[in-house]
Amino acid sequence: MDDAETTASGNGAENRTVEDVDPAAAFAALGNSTRVEILQAFREHHLANPTASAAAFSTLRKAVGIRDSGQFRYHLEQLRGTFVEKCDEDYRLTYAGSKVIDAIIAGTYTGRTRLGPVALDSGCSRCGTAAHASYRDGILEVTCEDDHPLFYWSVPPNAAVEASLEELVELATTLALQSYELVADGTCSECYSAVEPTIRTVHSEEAGGSVRFSARCRACAATWDAPVGFVLLDHPEIELLYHQQGRPISSQYWWELEVVDRTEITVLEEDPLRVRLSVTIGETPVRATVDESARVVGLDCPANMD
Ligand SMILES: [Zn+2]
Ligand SMILES: [Zn+2]
C-alpha cells in the first residue's frame, strides 16, 4: 500500500473515502504461487467454517504447508492491504482478494475447455440455415452455416466443465441479459464503473444503414454493441408481453426475438439522435421512441393498456 493515495471528500453527507491503489503493484504481489495458495487457503477455511469470516495465522500457515513462520509472514504481508486485511488477531480476505479467488475458481485465468460446434434447434433469420453453437477460450458463439454472427458472449470456463452447449447458451443468455440491463442503467457489468449507453447510426455494405445500441466503459474498455431493439428487452411492459404470450425472454434464443431481429427503425431526429422502433411481438404491434442515451422515452403497447 506504499503507493496508495487517499482522497477523502468530507463535504458530502456520505463522507466517502476513495483509495487509489496502483494495480500493477497490487498484482505484482500475486506473482508468486505461495501467495495465490494463501488466498485459496482463506476460501477453503471459509468453506469448512461458513460462519468464520477470518482465519488465524497458524491455520493459514498449516493449510499452505509452510513450516517457517517468518517466511509465511513475509508472504502474507505482501498480500496485506489490497487482498488481505487484519481483523483483530486474525486475517480475512478483502473484496479484491475474494474476487481474485472467484476468478480462479471460475477458471478465468486458467481454463481451457472447448466444446462443439453443435447444431441448435434454431435457424438464421437472414439465410435460413441451421444455427450452431461452439465454445472455446471462454467465449460462447452462435453462428449459422453461412457464418452470420447470431450471438456471442463470454462464459467462465468453470461453467463449461459439465454443461452441454444448449445449457451454456442458456447461461450466456442470462449473463448477457443481466449485463445489458446494468449497462442500460449506466453501470459497467464488468467493473461497475459508470458508463453512458448511447444509440448510433452505422452503415454497412450488406445491411445498409441501421441503428445500434452501443456503450464503452472508459475504465475497463469493455464494449457493448447490439441491435437497437435490445433496449426493449428489459422494459417491463415488453417483458410482460412476452410472458403473457407464454415465451418469457429468458427462455428464448435472442436472435429469434422480434425486438432483436425484426424491428423497423425510423429516424425521427438526427442530432441528437432519436428513433422510433416498430415491431410486432406475436400478434401485438408495439411502437417505442428511444432517445440518444438509449432510454425508452415512449411506448405504445396496446395489449397492456387495461
Ligand atoms: Zn445466416
Ligand atoms: Zn468497466
Automatic annotation (TrEMBL):
InterPro entries: DUF7347, DUF7351, WH-like_DNA-bd_sf
Domain DUF7351: 121-296
Domain DUF7347, residue spans: 23-104
Name listed for the protein in its UniProt record: Uncharacterized protein
Species assigned in the record: Natronorubrum texcoconense
